[in-house]
Structure formats: structure tokens, C-alpha cells
Design goal:
The protein is mainly beta. It contains three helices and 53 strands. Among the domains are: 62 residues, no CATH class; 128 residues; 169 residues. It is elongated, with a radius of gyration of 34 Å. The termini are far apart.
Length: 610
């Protein structure tokens, strides 16, 4: 028994020194991050020591700081307490301090509503009765309020407030405890932590910035529930912090991460960090920029194997980083980078992080950067907006979520690419893009609708499968099909009933598995047709053409429709297998005769004949 007591006391002494602060964190270990880890280690040590020997239990009780080593009990805060001290028995009815793992502290109407603990305290639950006064429960520096069972229950119609005030002041929710509803927790230099299966419920938690640095931390399988957590910016150095560890989840929570409040360029931004295998769940995240030039923007980080889950991240000038040295993932999240008060937002993928099927939206002067990612590059669900994408030397693959989107911004990277299109959706590029290494289409539709420059950079475009269309300009050579694939298509009007002209400033090649879809329309206002302009055309054996026309009035005989305008001095090489040179086809009752020497002598034309 003596050995057990000595061993227990020795281990607990070291554990509690870490948890209660006599082992001081390193300077600027506001690292409530570091403190949170120390606290977790200490509490894990304590929890692991469940000796049935009476002396061990007594040492445990003493180490946890219970004022009454014999027994504490549930009680109700008095109408007229003698002080605001939680740990004074005379303030309760019955006259005992709620300070035990099965105890309930109940609050009703009282003339003293600002309550403060004076010793580390543990309860199963805190209950506010119907009609209760509005209370403020304060946890001072170096003390802990451990709520280890049912958690907070607010049956009143008013918000009840809890505050951690000072370094290492801690409110801990453990086991299945919940922070409840109509609860507000403000961390002013302290920490609110959730361990086990604890949840933030629908509470609001506010983490102040410097000089009153506040932190909220989730460990093990705990959850933010449907709570609201606000990380405020500080005047300098650091802002409020929320961290997720282990397999903890943001649940359906709402998170606001603010930038710094001053323009000194030395930090002060709020931060949100996911580590271990934690996940953003279905959370909603708003990340704001700082207040003006020189102020730091709010930040969100993913490390280890953490996941953005199904979360929605809206960055109003903020920063979202999937870190190097990790396998973190954007999963099926929605990532939105907007303009902010202090410049555009930044979404960055580095190392071996993955984009999953994430929907990425980049607007204005905001950026998606993958130049720090490991080769060969990144795959994301979809891309949209009018912002900037920086590839560096990497490739970008888009389309795994099958959404149809438009990106009118600029994709650039001197050695970056290829840009690859996957999935069944449509991607429309309408900007002047400047990436290298080409463009590949493996599924779905890629429409090029730019008005200047090149919608696909300077290098070749390969349609392995799927469809290339649009009314824009392509600088590089275009190849439709692989020669042995399941089918690849060139269709300028794809997805629209308005005829289009696609301009290819280099050569166009149709392989055996290629199909060119050409449409025309005639009404009282005139004739509109598709057209492809290319600088040299090769049609390999087996390639097909599909002709489609809609006429509300008859086409006049002798009318010439240009199908392919070949700007090269060389004639078109080959013919479509179902449209021989000089052959006549009937489209919607109109007879059309093909010529591969039409126009200025080397175009593919169709002439209306009897």
C-alpha cells in the first residue's frame, strides 16, 4: 500500500505540475497548443490510474485539488450567498460545495451572479433552472473547472456565461459532457478543452486575441457539435486559437476566424488548426482578413491526415493551408477564396496533401497555389471563379465531383501542367491562361470561351475522351482521339443552341476514334453555323462527322457552309469516313455536297444542292 501511495503521488505530482502550470510552458507558449498537450497528457495519466487501493484513491483526490477529501455533494447556489466563491460551502444549499464526479451544481435566482472558483473543481453537471438569473462563472488563472458527466444544462431563457481568465485557466468537458445551449464561454488567456466524447453542443465560444490569448481544443473523439466558435484577432503576436486533435470533429459547428486588429505586420491573427486524424465535418468556416494594409489575415491549417470533410470554408482575405509533410486532404469540402480588406485570400496545397473532390472557388485577387505541392501535382473536384491559379511545375486535374463550372481567371505556371479534365461535368475556361505542358481531356466537356490570348496555354490539347468545344482561341495543336479509344469529340456548340466558332492557331488532327459534331441553323433572320478554324488539318481513317441542322425556312440552293476553315497553305489531309469528298448527305430535308477543296481551295465546305 505504501509503495502504491508513493508511486501514485510521484506520478501525479509530475502530471499535475504539467497540468496546473508549475511546469511553465516556454516563453510565448501561449502555445496554449503546448499547454493543451500537457494538460491532455496529465489527465490521461490520472485517468489511467484506477487502483482499487484506498490510499491510491485518496492521493488521486488530493492531487485533483478537491477541498473536501471526504465527500462533496450536489447543491444549489443560494439566493443570498455570503460571497461569490464557488468553493465556500455557505454559499450553497445544502451547505456543501459541489465538487465531485457525480455532483450537480444548480443555479436559480440569486443576488450574486458573478461566481468564481477558488480551487480546481470537478462536477458531473451544471444546471440553470427555469427563470434563473444571468450568471457569469469565472475560472481564474491556473485553476480548472472539470465538467465530467452530463455537462451544462440551461433551462432558463437567458444566456449563461463562463470565462477562463488568465494563463492556464481551464474549463474541461470530459466523458459525454456537453456545453449545452444558450451558453457563452469566453477564453481570456485560458483554455476550454473537450475530451472523450464531449461536445460543444450549441454553445458559443469566444477565443480572445493578444494580450488575453484564448484557446479551445478538442481531443480524442470529441465534437464541436453545432456550436459557434469565434477566434478573434489580437493587437500583435497571436490571436485566438482553436485546435482539433486525434479523431475530433468540427461536427456541424460554425467557426469565425478573424484577422489581426492592428496594422503592425507582426501577427495577431486568429487561427484554426486540424491535426492528427481530425476532421472539419460538416462545419461552416468564415476566415477573415486583417483590418487594413499590414494587418495579418485569419488562418486555417491542416496537418497530418486531417480532413476538411464536407466543410464549407469562405475566405474573405484569409489563408487556408494543407501543409507540407502531411497527407491532409480537402476531401469533399467547398473552398471559397474571396477578396478581402487586406488583399485576396490564399488557398495553398503543399507536400503530399490531396484535393479529393473539393469544390474550389477563387475570385478577384485571390489565389489557389499548388507550386509547393509534391510532383506530379494535385487533383480537385472542380474549379470556378475569376481569380488566379499558380501551378509552378505541377499539374492540375479537375472534375472529380462532376460539377459544371466556369473559370474566367488566369491559370499560370511556366512549367506547369498539364491541366487535365476528368468527370462528367463541364469546365468552361474563358480567361487568357499561361500554363505550359498542355491540356488533356479524359471525360466530360472542356469549353474554351476566351476572347484573347489562349484559353489553354501555349502547349498542345489532347482529347483522349470526352468533348472539346467553345468559341474561344487555342494556341497549341489539338488532337481529337487516341486512335483506339472509346470516343472523343470536337463540338463547338456543345451544351448550347447557339452556333460557335472555335479557333485553333496550330494544327488539328482527328484520329480514328474522333467525331466532329457540326451544327447549323436557318431562320428568317439568317443562317448561323458552327465553324472550326485550324492551321492545318489531318483526318485519319475512321474519323466521323455528325451533321445536325435546324431550319424553319429552306436554305437556298448554292449556299456554301464552311465546316472547317483551314488557314494553312496545305490541303486537308484525309476525309471523314462517312463524308467522302464530293459526297451528298441529307440533313433535315436539305441536300448538302461535301468538298475538301472548298473556300479558298483547302477548306471543308457543304454546298446546298437540289
Amino acid at each position: 500500500m505504501a509503495q502504491c501511495s508513493l508511486l501514485t503521488a510521484t506520478i501525479l505530482k509530475r502530471a499535475m505540475k504539467a497540468a496546473m502550470g508549475t511546469i511553465s510552458p516556454s516563453p510565448w507558449c501561449r502555445s496554449h497548443h503546448e499547454f493543451a498537450l500537457l494538460l491532455k497528457a496529465a489527465m490521461s495519466t490520472i485517468a489511467a490510474m484506477k487502483s482499487p487501493i484506498v490510499s491510491c484513491a485518496m492521493v488521486l483526490t488530493l492531487a485533483l485539488g478537491a477541498l473536501n477529501a471526504i465527500y462533496a455533494d450536489s447543491a444549489t447556489w443560494n439566493l443570498n450567498p455570503i460571497s461569490n466563491d464557488w468553493n465556500t460551502a455557505a454559499n450553497w444549499t445544502p451547505a456543501t460545495v459541489p465538487n465531485g464526479p457525480s455532483d450537480t451544481a444548480t443555479f436559480d435566482i440569486s443576488k450574486i451572479t458573478s461566481v468564481s472558483i477558488s480551487a480546481t473543481t470537478q462536477v458531473n453537471s451544471v444546471v440553470f433552472n427555469p427563470g434563473a438569473s444571468a450568471f457569469r462563472v469565472r475560472v481564474p488563472a491556473s485553476l480548472t473547472l472539470n465538467i465530467s458527466g452530463n455537462g451544462l444544462t440551461n433551462n432558463s431563457a437567458t444566456i449563461q456565461n463562463f470565462v477562463t481568465a488568465g494563463e492556464q485557466a481551464t474549463i474541461q468537458f470530459s466523458q459525454n459532457a456537453t456545453a449545452g445551449s444558450l451558453i457563452s464561454i469566453t477564453n481570456k488567456g485560458g483554455l476550454t478543452s473537450f475530451v472523450g466524447s464531449a461536445t460543444a453542443g450549441t454553445a458559443m465560444i469566444i477565443n480572445n486575441g493578444f494580450p488575453d490569448l484564448g484557446t479551445t481544443a478538442f481531443f480524442e473523439q470529441s465534437s464541436a457539435g453545432s456550436g459557434t466558435i469565434i477566434n478573434n484577432g489580437g493587437t500583435s503576436f497571436s490571436g485566438g486559437l482553436t485546435e482539433f486533435f486525434d479523431t475530433a470533429t468540427a461536427g456541424d459547428g460554425t467557426f469565425i476566424v478573424n484577422g489581426s486588429a492592428v496594422q503592425d505586420g507582426v501577427g495577431g491573427q486568429g487561427e484554426l488548426i486540424f491535426q492528427g486524424s481530425s476532421t472539419a465535418g460538416n462545419g461552416t468556416f468564415t476566415v477573415n482578413g486583417g483590418d487594413g494594409a499590414g494587418a495579418s489575415n485569419g488562418e486555417v491549417f491542416f496537418f497530418d491526415t486531417a480532413s476538411a470533410g464536407e466543410g464549407t470554408f469562405t475566405l474573405n482575405g484569409g489563408f487556408l493551408f494543407f501543409a507540407a509533410g502531411s497527407a491532409s486532404t480537402a476531401a469533399n469540402a467547398t473552398l471559397i477564396a474571396n477578396r478581402g480588406p487586406n488583399g485576396g485570400a490564399l488557398i495553398m496545397f503543399a507536400g503530399a496533401s490531396t484535393g479529393g473532390t473539393a469544390r474550389v472557388e477563387v475570385f478577384g485577387n485571390s489565389e489557389l497555389q499548388i507550386d509547393s505541392h509534391d510532383p506530379p501535382g494535385l487533383t480537385i473536384g472542380s474549379l470556378e471563379g475569376d481569380g488566379h491559379v499558380h501551378l509552378g511545375a505541377n499539374s492540375l486535374t479537375v472534375g472529380t465531383n462532376n460539377l459544371s463550372t466556369t473559370f474566367s481567371g488566369v491559370i499560370q505556371g511556366s512549367n506547369g501542367g498539364p491541366l487535365s479534365k476528368l468527370g462528367g461535368g463541364t469546365l468552361i475556361l474563358s480567361g487568357n491562361n499561361r500554363y505550359g505542358s498542355g491540356t488533356m481531356i479524359s471525360d466530360g466537356v472542356l469549353k474554351i470561351n476566351n476572347e484573347s490570348g489562349s484559353g489553354t496555354g501555349t502547349e498542345p490539347v489532347s482529347v483522349l475522351a470526352g468533348t472539346l468545344g467553345g468559341s474561344g482561341i487555342i494556341t497549341g495543336a489539338v488532337t481529337i482521339g487516341t486512335g483506339s479509344g472509346t470516343g472523343a469529340f470536337l463540338a463547338p456548340t456543345v451544351g448550347s443552341n447557339v452556333q460557335a466558332t472555335l479557333t485553333i492557331q496550330s494544327a488539328l488532327t482527328f484520329n480514328a476514334d474522333a467525331t466532329y459534331t457540326y451544327t447549323f441553323r436557318k431562320n428568317r433572320n439568317g443562317t448561323r453555323t458552327d465553324q472550326v478554324i485550324a492551321n492545318g488539318v489531318t483526318i485519319n481513317s475512321g474519323a466521323m462527322i455528325v451533321l445536325s441542322g435546324h431550319t424553319s425556312v429552306a436554305l437556298r440552293q448554292g449556299l456554301v457552309l464552311t465546316v472547317i476553315s483551314n488557314t494553312s497553305a496545305n490541303p486537308i489531309s484525309g476525309t471523314f469516313s462517312n463524308l467522302p469528298d464530293g459526297g451528298i448527305v441529307t440533313v433535315n430535308g436539305t441536300n448538302l455536297q461535301a468538298s475538301y477543296e472548298g473556300g479558298d481551295g483547302n477548306d471543308l465546305t457543304l454546298t446546298v444542292v437540289p
